[in-house]
Amino acid sequence: SQQGEEDPQALSIQEGENATMNCSYKTSINNLQWYRQNSGRGLVHLILIRSNEREKHSGRLRVTLDTSKKSSSLLITASRAADTASYFCAKGREETSGSRLTFGEGTQLTVNP
Amino acid sequence: EAGVAQSPRYKIIEKRQSVAFWCNPISGHATLYWYQQILGQGPKLLIQFQNNGVVDDSQLPKDRFSAERLKGVDSTLKIQPAKLEDSAVYLCASSLVGGDRTQYFGPGTRLLVL
After folding, report:
1. Across the interface, which of B43, B55, B102 has its CB nearest the CB of A103?
2. Region at B7 (left for phi over 0; alpha for psi -120 to 50; beta for the rest)
3. Which of A48, A98, A105 faces B42 most closely, judged by CB atoms?
4. Residue A66 CB: number of other CB atoms within 10 A?
5. B68 in helix, strand or coil?
6. N or C: at which end does chain B have fewer Cβ atoms within 10 angstroms?
7. What's the alpha-carbon Rg for chain A, to the nearest Å?
8. Model confidence over A72-94: pLDDT tens digits?
């Protein structure tokens, strides 16, 4: 089964509002990553938070990680219509051969102008 | 810097036919991944290469799927024969082995099996 389950499955907000998406996972991780996927386009890497970090910021994005609860959240502040996309969290494991990602099912975010 | 290139972008075939997808990773990226993304789901790893060697193909349906990366650069993924349930987007990604191991994804190939 997929690791990194997102909640909610779908979220609709107005432009300017904040959007919060949550992700839970089951097994140990080295990092947790968030990706965005616009309709018909590939996945774009947004942010990576390591297992020893609790919070990370990148522009309007804020990610938190609680390893005791095996959960993470992605906050998008002051949302824009262009933020409309699917957002995926991915459990990351670092191995000598490269990074391994296991994706969740995603949250479909709609930002209404 | 050029991103991950994939072709074709779209493919429609009938069941039991064969199909092949091509991927050219970012220059210098030794690790290459193929993912399958079924509509409404997250991507699922099919196979991972480091240079021209297979690192992980545990989720590759080997009775019908095959992949190669003969010279450690470009890669092809083949399905033969295709089934209806193979309809999906096939994503290729690449990353460095050391340093920044972020996976960079191509635009994908959308496959429809009729």
Report:
1. B43
2. beta
3. A105
4. 11
5. strand
6. N
7. 13
8. 999 999 999 999 999 999 999 87
A84 alpha carbon, distance to own chain's centre: 14
Q: Residue with structure tokens 């064969």?
A: B18
Distance, in Å, from the CA atom of B91 to the CA atom of A42, rounded to the nearest integer, reads 7
In a mutational test of the B interface, the residue from A2, A29, A43, A47 whose CB has the highest number of chain B CBs within 10 Å is: A43
Cross-chain Cβ contact B55/A44 below 8 Å: no
B87 φ, ψ (degrees, to nearest 5) = -60, 120
Task: Provide φ and ψ at B93, rounded to 5°.
Answer: -140, 160
A 14-73 residues with CB < 8 A to B: 33, 35, 41-45, 48
Partner residue opposite B55 with nearest CB, options A48, A90, A98: A98
